[in-house]
Design a protein that fits this description.
Length: 187
Amino acid sequence: MTRMLPLAALALACVASPAFAAEVATVGDKPVLIPWGDWLVALAVSLREPILTVLLPIIAAYVIQAIRKVYPWAALFLSQRRVEMMLEAAVGFGLNAVNGAAKGKTLSVNVAVPVIAKGTQYVIDTAPPAVIKAAGGADGIAARIFRKLDLDDNASEAAVLVPAQKQIAAGTVDADELRRMDEMTRR
């Protein structure tokens, strides 16, 4: 069937002249012409609406099907990108909220714990629940912030991440806690 359509179109093109007219007979010395072009144009105009009403939904269905196949990948990419943007904001907020912490500076254990806790709390307070869930909840966010920080040699997961997660779980991340942690760093 698919091979027949191009063959039919080729046959129609061969039969029709460049002017879309064919000589049928001769009356006297004048030829009788049949205006194929006018008929084809009239046929195309009359079939335009039925073709659009039939073909447009079919084409739309194929486009929707293609979007459905690509959507999970696109949604995954967009949500991961949003999580990364959120984590960058959390790290920046945590570094700005804690005295003794600065971007590009190696952080000690005493400074890194409140940076992680404050950054995680910032995300929990400001980010949409879907983004928090995509990041793995509070523990996942804290772990990702931990991996993004430049920590000194004494910092380890047990010394930094676990205490930060405990603070976040206990809900003790507030301004007073941060001040106490800052005072510990100054000593």
